Amino acid sequence: MNDATRVKQATAEDGFPVDAPMTEAKKFTIQLRKAVPAHDDPKKMELSFREPSMSDVLQFGLPVEMDLSPNPVRTTQMLARLGFVAPSTIEAMDTHDWMTCAMWLARFFHPDAQLILSY
Q1: Please, are residues 95 and 50 in contact by the beta-carbon 8 Å criterion?
Q2: Is residue 47 classed as helix, strand or coil in its secondary structure?
Q3: Burial 1-10 (b: 16+ CB within 10 A, else e)
Q4: pTM score, two decimals?
């Protein structure tokens, strides 16, 4: 993997190493309603997130409850990790933007109904 496809640790504030690939095909990008401060731009208007992995789940737990509603603390932590930004960046988001990202994230935790019903 070359350096152009790797993202290194954003800041020490993140509290965990980030060294994961973010490919264009597996990236979710949102244009924000209001700017948020980030390590690379004090007035960031766009955030991109990679898909979650089991490593992310083990680090923070499931970001959604059994009814698939977002857990605000876990969702914020996981979005920070997936977006390679500090949690304070996610906390500064407009609530509509946060919920859009939370619903994007929740889709990874819906069970596969076809597989379940096939048993």
Answers
A1: no
A2: strand
A3: eeeeeeeeeb
A4: 0.74
Structure tokens at 19: 């060294």
Q: What is the pLDDT of residues 59-109, one digit of tens each?
A: 999 999 888 889 999 999 999 999 999 999 999 999 999 999 999 999 998
For 88, phi and psi rounded to 5 degrees?
-60, -30
Rounded CA separation 1/110 (Å): 30
d(CA 115, CA 119): 7
> Sign of the CA dihedral 33, 38, 44, 46?
negative
Chain mean position to CA 69: 16
Name the band, by pLDDT with cuts 50, 70 and 90, for residue 28. Answer: very high
* Whole-angstrom distance, CA of residue 57 vs CA of residue 47: 21
- 80 and 89 in contact (C-beta within 8 Å)? yes
Category of 84 on φ-ψ map: left (φ > 0), alpha (ψ -120 to 50) or beta: left
